[in-house]
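Protein Entry — a single chain follows
Fields — amino acid sequence, structure tokens
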Amino acid sequence: MIKYIIKIIVLIFISFVLFQSCTPDNEEDPYVDYRDDFIGTWRFNETSLKYDISSYYPVYISKDPANSFQVLLSNFGNPGTGYSPVYGIVSENNIEIPQQNTGDGWLIKEGSGVKITSSQMEWHYKITIGGDEESHTAIAEKQ
């Protein structure tokens, strides 16, 4: 009888050692949406390198429903209402803006924003308005 109980205890112990869960307990979600950190209203403090003029304006960043790697930036470059939003491609810590037209002679030549902290980004971009190209830098703070 004792041999039988010992065999059962040994089998239980071996089953605990050999058989583990199919999924690790601490497994993280394999899909991280990096866009989440960028969504919201950002206050841009923009400096025109050509004219050495600073201005403040809001930019609204939302997820692009048509593409899981893109965001839409409304009022980027401060064109005002009535202009199409600019799209940007998000990676872990930055947004890249490829060349695109937003309307009425506004051409975003290129741009990129890098996350400095969870509430601050640094931007560099070029905008052509009616044939006049300007380079800009900006610090954006999340509101």
About this structure: The helical segments are 2-18. The mean pLDDT is 87. The longest helix spans residues 2-18.
